[in-house]
Structure formats: C-alpha cells, structure tokens
Amino acid sequence: MTQPTQPLQPPGGDLVLTPPEPVAPVEPERAATLVPLDDEVRADLDRRAASYVDALTSLDTRSPEFLAKVGDIAGLGDTEMRASASSANRMLDRSVAALAGAGGEGAGAQSRVGQGLVELRRTVEDLDPKDLGKVTGRRMLSWLPFGNKLRDFLNRYQSANTNINKIVLSLRSGQDELRRDSTAIQHERTQLWRSMGKLQEYAVLSEALDRALEQRIAEVEARDPEQAQALRADALFPVRQRHQDLLTQLAVCVQGYLALDTIRRNNEELIKGVDRAAVTTVSALRIAVTIAGALANQKQVIEQVNALRGTTENLIAANAEMLSAQSAEIQRIAADPAVGVETLRRSFEQIYQTIDSIDQYKAQAVQNMRSTVDALSSELGRAAGHLERSAARNELEA
C-alpha cells in the first residue's frame, strides 16, 4: 500500500554548511599529552616501572636472565601497536578515499551526494525564471498569454519534475549511506580511542622506566662504571627506543582519530545539506509553480472581466450617443412646424405660377378661338351657295 505523502516542512534557520578545519600533523611528543590518564594510573605505572628496574638491576648484566628481562621491553605494547596500526591504516584509507571521491577520483557517498547537489543546483538554475523576478503587477501579467514566460516556466517544471525527484531520491540514498558511514566511523573511533588509551599507558610506563633507569644508572655509575655502561647500552637504549616507537604510533593513531572526526563532521554537514537542500528546493519549486499557475488563472479571469467590461462600456457609450442624437432631433422636430415655411412659400409660388400660366393660356386661347370662329364662318358662307345650288338640282331631278 502506498504511504501518504508527508507535507514538507521548512528547514529551521538558514542553510550554513561549515567545513571542518583540516587535520594538522601531530608530533610524537605532543601525542603523549592528547590522551588523558588518571593520576592513580600514572602512580601505578611509576610503581611498576620502579619494581621492574629493581628486578633488572639485581641481575648480572651478562646473564641470560638479564637479556630475557630486557627483551620484555622490546615487546612492550606490541599487540596494541599492531591493532592500532591496523585501525589507523583503515581510517587513513577511508580519509584518502573520501578526499579522492570529493576530487572526482572515486564514487564514495560524499562524492555522490556532492554530485547530486551540483546536479540539483543546475536543474534548479535551469528552472529559475530570472526575468519574472524583475517585473510585477500588470507588466508580469501582460506576459501571460500566447506562449508567455510563466506558461513556459510551468512547462519546464513539468519536464524537469521527474528528474528532480530522481535527484532527490539519489540524495536521500546517499544521505542514508553517509549515516551508515558515520556510524561505522564512530565505532572505529571508539575502538581507536581504546587502543590509544592503552598505548598512552605503555608510553607513560616506558617514560617511567626511562626515568627510573636513568636514576639507577646515575647511582651505579659511582661504584660500578662497567655495570652502568651495560645498563645504559642494553636497557636504557631499548627503553627509549620503545618509548619513541610508542609515541610515534600514538601520533599516527591521533592523526587517524582526528581524520575520522573530520570525515564524520563532513558527513554531518552533508546530511544537513541534503535535508535542507531537498526540502527547500522542492518547497521553493512547488511554491513557484503554484504562484505561476495562480497568476495564469488570475490573468484569464482578468481578461474575461476586461472583455465583459469593455463590451458593457461600448454598449453604454453607444446608447448614450444615440440618446444624445435622438434627443436633439426630437427637440428640433418639436420646435419646427409640421410643414416648413419655405416649403409652403415654394408651394404657393408654384400655385401662383400655375394660375398665371392658365390665365395666360386662356388669353391666348381666346384669340386663337376668335380666329378659328372667323375662319369657320367664312368657310360656311362660301359653302352656303354651293349647298343651295345642290339642293335645287335635287328638286329638279325629282
């Protein structure tokens, strides 16, 4: 069953990754003071050293027992030296491997986490809407339609989201490996610290043997110079040699211990960096996408509102214009008579002209009719004689 997705929580405080200081070389003389010992332990070691010197000086320097007793010094802390050397070598190998991985020569957890952070940063930089951060308000909204930058940003996020999730999963995997590595390192440091404690005891014991032998040699010098020289050559020399070897090994262990601490702190910083980078990056991207989507939706609503408002304004303006024009026309019509004065004047002039034309026509027609009557009367007079003669002939023939 799929587990529900947990809401992302913002990181506490600013992201600050502080690299630890490089490990400084540890001198053998200084190594003897880095591992503390109780005063009771030191007092017991002094007593053991005094007892050993008493037993050694009681033997003949030429006897096999003396040589066997001196041989015990050569094996002082030998088991702890081998164990600490093996542990220190493992730790130094781990440190070198971590540094090589950070330099691109390996594939350790630190290297993979570092590479994942770099890849995540590049991906986020590719998604960074730099131009959008320079504008606000209407200028930003004016870029929204027709392949605008905010829509392109959403498309880029959708394309890169899968890659980002893979990077974050890789970072989380590397983070888990860093935690396991830190646990192993802490275990190694604990073991190494115990070995260092034992080596410190042997170093303090060898130092106590050195002081006790030197003091005894000074006492023997006066009465038996030959024995003093034998003690100096056969006992004091191997004691100081062993003391030097113990301090050198202790310095190597301290160096490895500090190197382990450096790696552990590096791991802790990387673990914190992964937590904060993953949470901050994913949260920032989701917030940016949410804001961009909200702005795109707001722009669509604004465009519809503006279009509706423009249509309404145009209707109101057209109605107002028509109302103004028609009101002026109505007032003009109300002030003017039903028929225009000029029209009436022209009508009367035309009537007068028509009447005058008729009168003039009648006057001319009277003259013409008189002439016609006279012509007809003359013709009738001429025709009367002919009619009379025609009638007389008709009567005779009858």
UniProtKB/TrEMBL annotation:
Family matches, as InterPro entries: Toxic_anion-R_TelA
Region Disordered: start-end pairs: 1-23
Protein origin, superkingdom: Bacteria
Pfam families named in the record: TelA
Record family assignment: Belongs to the TelA family.
Protein name: Uncharacterized protein YaaN involved in tellurite resistance
Phylogenetic placement of the source organism: Bacteria, Bacillati, Actinomycetota, Actinomycetes, Streptosporangiales
